[in-house]
Design brief:
Blueprint lengths: L5 E4 L19 H4 L1 H4 L4 H6 L2 H5 L14 H14 L10 E4 L9 H7 L10 H5 L5 H11 L6 H6 L18 H7 L1 H14 L12 H11 L5 H10 L1
Helix pairs in contact: 10-11, 12-13
């Protein structure tokens, strides 16, 4: 994450590594010329700075081993790219892409770890309940349809029963097992009646998350926590 989030602004070249740091239009030699990079000894990759490398084109002497036509082409490309760079008296500067000031902060780094992630709308139902951890984990898998039901086995071409083993009426999906199966409906009815929660039994075509949101709106705030736990434990 740190490597992908940083680039180097060249100054005096004393802290920028020639082979490893991202100083060529936001990319490193390792990224734009991987075959040529493999010809550089590891010790040189970690120690050759821009100041040293540009001094008399010392970087070219780091290339060792067998050089093929592809490596020669990358060498010429790198040679041309270097001609546009000149060093100054200012120190090199590390640029951080996740802040407007290009300065690193722990807060921006933490936020960057969630780039591209998707929000799970059922997280509060699952993780903020009183249910045991293994029950929470089961529902986390169920929400993503990762439980090994007959429908999941069928989608992978594995042997499975054609119908639910409990009711022998409908195909066994996670929604059927948790909500639509007659046995599941009976359990829902008994638990809701026993806990005096004013919510209707889930319908056949209901998603557990949708039912919980509707039931929550019909339940007094003092029973919300209990409703969450019962929803998972039922």
């Amino acid at each position: 994450l740190f490597f992908a989030s940083t680039t180097m602004m060249l100054g005096d070249g004393r802290t920028t590594l020639f082979w490893d740091d991202r100083w060529i239009s936001g990319q490193s030699v390792r990224e734009i010329a991987p075959l040529l990079y493999q010809c550089i000894p590891k010790q040189r990759r970690k120690t050759r700075t821009m100041a040293d490398g540009l001094n008399g084109n010392t970087w070219a002497r780091d290339i060792q081993g067998t050089i093929g036509i592809h490596e020669i082409g990358l060498y010429l490309m790198l040679w041309q790219a270097i001609q546009h760079f000149t060093l100054t008296e200012e120190p090199d500067r590390l640029l951080w892409r996740w802040t407007a000031s290009a300065t690193y902060s722990a807060q921006s780094c933490y936020a960057a770890t969630f780039q591209g992630s998707t929000r799970c709308h059922s997280w509060k139902l699952i993780w903020k309940s009183w249910a045991p951890p293994r029950v929470k984990f089961f529902h986390w898998l169920a929400y993503q349809d990762r439980c090994w039901t007959a429908s999941t086995l069928a989608s992978r071409g594995l042997q499975h029963h054609p119908r639910c083993l409990l009711c022998d009426q409908d195909p066994e999906t996670i929604q059927h097992l948790l909500l639509a199966c007659p046995f599941a409906k009976q359990i829902w009815h008994l638990i809701l009646d026993w806990t005096h929660i004013p919510a209707q039994t889930p319908a056949n075509d209901t998603i557990l998350m949708d039912w919980w949101l509707r039931a929550k709106a019909q339940t007094p705030p003092t029973l919300h926590k209990a409703l969450q736990s019962i929803t998972l434990l039922a």
